[in-house]
Specification:
mainly beta; Jelly Rolls; 1 helix; HNL-like_cupin; RmlC_Cupin_sf; Cupin domain-containing protein; Cupin_2
């Protein structure tokens, strides 16, 4: 067993995010065969990811605020604290904060050996984001 040193908060890069988004890495692979990464991600109002997919899928647990999530071609879904969102491997999607609320989620994903943790696409446009939620998951 070991206690990890405290890690610095990282501001996520503008190539993959719109608005202010910060990451606190919680866990990453440390031994052979491990693939799981976990991070606490904080989004300012209106902040969001670009379109992306994960080769091993992704699970998000919303812990604070209101999240908006959308799979390519699907509805924009409003997600609240305590709710979990799963995107299967390769599903293109985006997630971010509602226009008037900060949002925090715990992001969990596995990265298959030899692959990138995410395949990043174009930014979500203001028009795509501005459509707002069409489904409330409560």
């Amino acid at each position: 067993m070991k206690v990890e040193s405290e890690r610095q908060t990282i501001k996520n890069p503008p190539e993959w995010f719109t608005g202010d988004v910060w990451l606190d890495l919680v866990a990453s692979p440390q031994d052979p065969g491990q693939r799981m990464s976990v991070g606490v991600v904080r989004f300012a109002p209106c902040a969001r990811t670009a379109w992306h997919s994960h080769p091993g899928g992704q699970t998000l647990l919303v812990t604070e605020g209101v999240a908006l999530v959308q799979a390519r071609g699907g509805e924009v879904i409003e997600v609240h604290p305590g709710q979990t969102v799963y995107t299967p491997p390769g599903e293109e999607h985006w997630h971010g904060a509602a226009p008037d609320r900060f949002m925090t989620h715990i992001a969990m994903y596995e990265t298959p050996d030899g692959e990138s943790s995410a395949d990043w696409g174009a930014h979500v446009t203001d028009e795509e984001y501005g459509r707002g939620p069409t489904v409330t998951s409560r």
